[in-house]
Amino acid sequence: MNWISNVVPPKIRSLLRRDTPENLWVKCPESGQLVFHKDLEANLMVVPGSGYHMAIGAKPRLASLFDGGDFEEIAAPETQSDPLKFRDIKRYADRLKENRAKTGAYDAVTLAFGKLDGLAVTVAVQDFAFQGGTLGVAAGEAIIAGMTWAVERRTPFIIFTASGGARMQEGMFALMQMPRITVAVRRLRHARLPYIVVLTNPTTGGVTASYAMLGDVHVAEPGAVIGFAGARVIEQTIRERLPEGFQRAEYLRAHGMVDMVVARPQLRDALARLCSLLMRTPLGAAA
């Protein structure tokens, strides 16, 4: 109890109390720094002091990438939501409903088409907030549809990966998306169109074992965890201590698996230069 609750009358007490939104301040997981949420959003969810890259939703990421924040969302093909009628603690169909309500998206992959420094590009974004960004039938069909769209319209294809791997609730149906997307990547190559992969935190499992490592250029965000199996599983298997920074973006760049590590605020300019170079189109040219 304090003097406000003991002495101040209830009506005055209600005037003194101010409700503070829960997300007004955000604590950096790395440095412990408290950041005003609006400042964090303005910096694309990158903590200004430490440079720590927090998760960012698909729509804000797309808005930060395209000219003027304008883009056309591409409808993904409809798929069977629960091919195995899977159930663990709860039904898989119920999990999908919860994730759709939480993210506002049909599945883990959002497709968009628009201009990047005047050049038309097709973009896919995996959202880790949707079932851990896992790859299922719907996500696989969306990525293939995006690549097909890019081939038909002769645009570069950029994908932002963030995933825990294949979706176990869909079993082999999920695993089969890996070779199917690999075939779609071959179509991009045959059409001589750029395929650029932006690896974000985390990109793991079957996604890393397939299309995430098939790009013409691999760009990673700072500090992103990129790998197949988890570091703890690897240590237990080989019974050795792993090097410092193992599976981080900077470690992979130093060992030749990633071409560039680019901070999120500079990512748009870097991708625009890459697309311009690979498409042999001057920056700012109208598509």
Secondary structure layout:
Layout: H1 3-7, H2 10-16, E1 25-27, E2 34-36, H3 37-42, H4 58-65, E3 72-74, H5 92-103, E4 109-116, E5 119-126, H6 137-153, E6 157-163, H7 171-175, H8 177-190, E7 195-203, H9 205-208, E8 217-220, H10 231-238, H11 249-254, E9 260-261, H12 264-279
Parallel strand pairs: 5-6, 6-7, 7-8, 8-9
Antiparallel strand pairs: 1-2, 3-4, 4-5
Largest sheet: 7 strands, mixed
Q: What's the CATH topology label of the largest domain?
A: 2-enoyl-CoA Hydratase, Chain A, domain 1
The percentage helix is 25-40%
Structural class: alpha/beta
Span of the ends, CA to CA:
67 Å
Number of helices: 12
Using only C-alpha atoms, the radius of gyration works out to 22 Å
Low-confidence sequence ranges: none
Please state the average pLDDT score. 91
Number of domains: 2
The string of secondary-structure elements, in order, is HHEEHHEHEEHEHHEHEHHEH
Instruction: Quickly give the CATH architecture of the largest domain.
Output: Alpha-Beta Complex
Find the count of extended strands (DSSP E, 2+ residues). 9
CATH class of the largest domain: Alpha Beta
- What is the topology, as strand order, of the major beta sheet? 3-4-5-6-7-8-9
Task: Please outline what is shown here.
This protein has twelve helices and nine strands.
Tell me about this structure.
By secondary structure, the chain is of the alpha/beta class. It folds into two domains: 39 residues, no CATH class; 225 residues, 2-enoyl-CoA Hydratase, Chain A, domain 1, CATH 3.90.226. The chain is built from twelve helices and nine strands. It has a seven-stranded mixed beta sheet, sandwiched between helices. It has a two-stranded antiparallel ribbon with strand order 1-2. Strand 1 and strand 2 form a beta hairpin. Helix 6 packs parallel to helix 8.
